[in-house]
Each structure stands twice: as C-alpha cells, then as structure tokens.
Input
Amino acid sequence: MLNDKSFIHYLKEAEQDFSGWDFSYVTDTGRMAASLLSWSYGSMAKKLITESTSLLDMGTGGGELLAKLQPFPQSVFATEGYKPNFPIAKKRLNPLGVTVVEVDEDNLLPFTNGQFDLIINKHEAYSAQEVRRVISENGIFLTQQVGGADCAEINEALGIPLNEEYLHWQLDFAKKELEDNGFRVVFAKEETPVQRFYDVGDYSHAIVPSLPCFWSTADIKSFHLCH
Output
C-alpha cells in the first residue's frame, strides 16, 4: 500500500492548504460529478436578488458564488465563519460593494432587527430564530442544505460512523424548525443526488480535512481499497 505511488500522491492532496469554496479543480476536470437536482439554487437566488433592496449571503465562502449573482441591491452583506476564507471573500466582494462580516456564532449575527428583505444561504449552518430576527416582516429566506446522511456510502466503505449529531438534519426537521420560528414555508423539496468521486485525491482534499483525526483513526487500508 505504501509503495503505491499514485495512492500516496492522492493522500498528499489532503495536506495542501484549502481556502475559498471553489471546487472547480475537481468538478471542471471531471474528477468528481453529481447528478442534477430538479431545482437550481442559483436561478432562484438570481431572481430574488433582482427584486430585493437589502441582501445577506450567509456563509459566502470565498465569495465565488455571490460574485456571480450581480447586479446587487444597494445594501449587500455577506458573512463567513471560516477564517482562511474571510480575507479571500473581502478581496473579491468589497470592490463589488459587498460588506463582508466575520461571524463565530450562528445565533449572534451582528445585524439589526429586520435589516434584510432577502437572506440566501447555500450549505451554511444557521439559527432559525436568529434568521427570523434579522429578516424583515415579509422577507424571504432561501436556503439549500446538505442532509445529515450525505455521502453515507463513503462513510460505510471507510469504516467511519455517521456523525449522530447531524442525523436529524433532514427536510422535515428543518421545515418544522422554520415554521416554529414564524416562517411560512412556500417551497420545500428533498432529493438524494448521486455523487461520484473518480479518485481518492479529490475526496481526501475536499472532504477528509473536515473529519477530525481521520488519519489517526481511520482504516487506511479501506481507503486504499477505494483507490
């Protein structure tokens, strides 16, 4: 296994610094692919932005997606909690008129009550109560989330148990939580798209760094079998 040069090469990808939220290095090269969803978050966000006057993008990453959703309303803010991403987002978004704010707690957003008439959120954790506080009375909250059992087959293949802390995170739970905090849900849908990683390098670089102590506890032989 340790003499498998291509396997060792892919493992080293996990050691490279990762910042921003641009996975084009694996998607554009065909190293990872996913089946299409029946909706488009980008198309929905684009339409809503054209109708808004004050926008918040939660968990903007490096600002890659938000920058592509111009033109913006007069007031635009973005939050980011991952420290390596914060300067990247500022550099990309500040020239576009976007104020980027670093946040540490989902339930302590540094904004006034009812400040935004549109809040968008792609794959970012949130507090339903706090989102309700900072959104206007008739404001719109658009979010696309990742379920708690995402990529369960990979966990199974590697012998890594699913994180029980997030297994409840499914559409029914999220919908009820929003409704309990005063939202009226007008569109909700859940799908399980097929994701395929064509080599272990794209998975180890993009996903494994988020798994605590992976290299010290996981069965590397199982990872090699996936290779």
About this structure: Residues 209-218 have pLDDT under 50 and may be disordered. The first helix runs from residue 5 to 13. The beta strands are 32-34, 54-58, 75-80, 99-102, 116-122, 135-144, 195-197. The longest strand covers residues 135-144.
